[in-house]
Automatic annotation (TrEMBL):
This is Enoyl-CoA hydratase family protein. CDD domains: crotonase-like. It comes from the Bacteria. Belongs to the enoyl-CoA hydratase/isomerase family. It comes from Streptomyces xanthii. SUPFAM superfamilies: ClpP/crotonase.
Length: 247
């Protein structure tokens, strides 16, 4: 039997919605999900009938981060994030749940992100012995530097209002769809070529970070994921216990 798709696609009035649909691992960024999402985004980017793309999810988690059992290759993750930034159509994240670690890289790559007030966010990498390396490519150019230092270093959880304050999301509301509606209305009223050129203006600094820092951050990620500390951290996470370094 063919495998069930991990990404569901729908189209309405010029907007393609791509839904992460891997509830068994809380939409973690597995090798297969990253590959499928990259392909779906590329298709939307080439379709003249697509004005914008909405990236959303099933279940109560937008994405739990990298799938520790089946992680994507670092080149594939970079390709996905850069593909979102370079797509000639605006990409809007709709978050009606929680986002952790690598899932936050998707939000950083999107042009606009809206979240329900009940959503929570956390950069949990340091708690398993690694660093938010590759996902920093779209995030660091866009986030408040003092806030990101705190949340990168502590792994603390924060809410949607704080995510909006530091630039991780554009807007939050009681309901994600209510927050999304005016955004989609505005995009549907915009001329497609004007959208593409305006997005190119807005993403210059982010793409400069990709050009400058990709190899360095990929090397950092590979080194940390191969370390004894990461093995202990990931084992502890999968076993639902504290790693050895917790006091």
């Amino acid at each position: 039997m063919p495998e069930e798709p991990l990404i569901r696609a729908a189209h309405d009035r010029g907007v393609t919605t791509l839904t992460l649909d891997s509830p068994g691992n809380r939409n973690a960024l597995s090798h297969a999900l990253v590959a499928e999402l990259t392909e779906r985004l590329a298709d939307a980017g080439k379709d003249p009938g697509v004005r914008a793309v909405v990236l959303t999810h099933t279940g109560n988690t937008f994405s739990a981060g990298a799938d520790l059992r089946d992680p994507p290759h670092p080149d594939a993750l970079v390709g996905l994030l850069r593909g979102i930034v370079e797509l000639p159509k605006p990409v809007v994240a709709r978050v009606a749940g929680h986002v952790r670690a690598g899932g936050l890289g998707l939000l950083g790559a999107c042009d606009i992100s809206v979240a329900a007030t009940a959503s929570t966010f956390a950069f949990t990498e340091v708690r398993i012995g690694v660093a938010p390396a590759v996902i920093s490519l779209p995030l660091l150019p866009r986030l408040d530097p003092r806030a990101v230092a705190r949340y990168y270093l502590t792994g603390e959880r924060f809410d949607a209002a704080e995510a909006a304050r530091i630039g991780l999301v554009t807007a939050s509301g009681d309901d994600a769809d209510t927050a999304l509606a005016p955004v989609l209305d505005g995009l549907r009223r915009a001329e497609p070529q004007a959208l593409a050129e305006t997005k190119a203006l807005l993403t210059v600094k982010v793409l400069e970070a990709f050009d400058r820092d990709t190899r360095t951050l990929q090397d950092l990620s590979a080194r940390l994921f191969a370390s004894e500390q990461a093995r202990e951290g990931m084992t502890a996470f999968l076993e639902r216990r504290d790693p050895a370094w917790v006091w």
